[in-house]
Amino acid sequence: MAENTERIYTIELHDVTLGYGERVLMADANVGFGWGELTALIGRNGTGKSTLLRTIAALARPQSGVITIQGDNVSELSMREVASRISFVSTDDVRVQNLHVWDVVALGRAPYTNWVGRLREEDRAKVQEALALVGMSAFAEASMESLSDGERQRVMIARALAQDTPIILLDEPTAFLDLPNKYEVCLLLRRLAHEQGKCILFSTHDLSIALELCDTIAMIEGGEFHYGTAEMLIESGAMQRIFERTQIEFDREKGNVRLKR
Amino acid sequence: MNRNSTILFVLLSVATLLLFVVDLAVGSVAIPLADVWHGLRGGGGDATAPVELIVRNFRLPKAVMALLAGASLSTVGLQMQTLFRNPLAGPYVLGVSSGASLGVSIMLLGLPLMGVSVANPLVQSIGVAGAAWIGAAAIMVVVMAVTARIKNIMTVLILGMMFGSAASALVEVMQYLSPEGALKSYVVWTMGSLGGVTLSQLKIVVPIIAVGLLLSVLLIKPLNILLLGENYARTMGLNIKRTRFMVTLTTVMLAGTITAYCGPIGFIGLAVPHIARMLFREADHKVLVPATMLTGTTVMLLCDILSALPGNDLTLPINTVSALVGIPVVVIVIFRNRKTMM
After folding, report:
1. Residue A134 has pLDDT above 90, yes or no
2. How far apart are the C-alpha atoms of A54 and B234, rounded to whole Å?
3. Which of B227, B237, B337 lies at the smallest CB-CB distance from A111?
4. What is the reported pTM?
5. Which of A93, A97, A104 to probe by mutation at the B interface, max B CB count within 10 Å?
């Protein structure tokens, strides 16, 4: 692709195969994710979306192949070095009694603070900035328990921003949110990718939002990895294959799903 | 740190100091505060005066042990609650105290059964501590291994209780087989007493506890990171294995040593961190660790004073008093935390 030759890659997969024991989830994936791009990772339950994200974040190892971030093999970097390049928003629910929003976001500075975690001026500035970017400055003193699901998700994104990494991975950040909140969170991620120049990759089941708002789509289907713009995946027929053996199908014109007639 | 926390720290320090002095004064013989002071200074001229003997050789080691036990067990409880993400974790509940007891019973009952006898009291005392450490460490390793595979916190708690029961059952088998002499020294140990520690033993206990408490200060940042869970912790660059090892080490040094010299003391490790959380309304371990230590010393001294309240020669076992004080707190925690577990 001529238009892509000048892209500077952040995360690259080289012949990456994921799986557990005998079971292969995704075979021989090759791809490079670029700066300032928002990418949605789609695929049905159990296809290995979480596993791929966890493997990129060095929480798991690929069965074979190499994942590089900014040119370095992830499995050869220390967790501390990975932490300065990749921040991760997991599906874990953080509801700890008396834990304040500010404290959570400030923990994002952990890779840079001293042994007791003392915040310096620049750390405080980063925390303020992160809270402002997600629109949660007014909630700094609030307790995590008192927030709604959407607000809590914003705080976790702010924590990732405070970690100040070029790459942010998010595992199903829109799950459990109502439709307006799903859009709000995706628009926030898009703004962060475009305005802050971050490489953001998130897994999701919200197909129409992904098609509408993301720059590129990564897709795991039937053990194969597909990557491209929404149009490319629709043209190649890859998108339609998600709905094989179901009662719904993908409508190419509307970019949406409908019942099979 | 905000103003409220500063005020609370001052209040708890004053309370610890006052209770420490009261603890020196109460017991089977009530000693007026003025005499306590003279006894401590030893300036009364008569070194064999009974008051001075009691204060220096019995009351002082006992009160110091109350300070150490309170701070140690509470700190261990806080660390376990954060590490296992379980508000009901504690050295007693997860079986660490039982593991230590099992170690001690093998030392006091098992060895005599096998025909090995330890005559030297100092060797025996160090042997008891070593046995408690090994027992506590063994249970910690098992609990860690289980939590690595099973995430359900209730399952882990139940398993902890099972380990505790299994350890108790093994102890009972040994008790059944043991001759009277060995049995007596073990039963005295299980009664749990802060007063059984001599001045010379205190010289071993104080440095060990001091090192353990210092290590727990080094754990402040890792524990804060672990509040978000292991996934987040690892992606923030935390070395989970090293943190687990450090928590095990401090647990063994603190809970193991206290259990070795005072017998099992329940519910302090579980309840005190929650009292500290309710008082300080903080989740940050920079505040919670010192807060828990000070709350622990206050509560433990209070328990020791309460145990001497019946007067005369009667003293309640410290384990009984700590259960009476701790259990209401645990019940409150269970009712409050039905939704947010921690």
Report:
1. yes
2. 11
3. B237
4. 0.91
5. A97
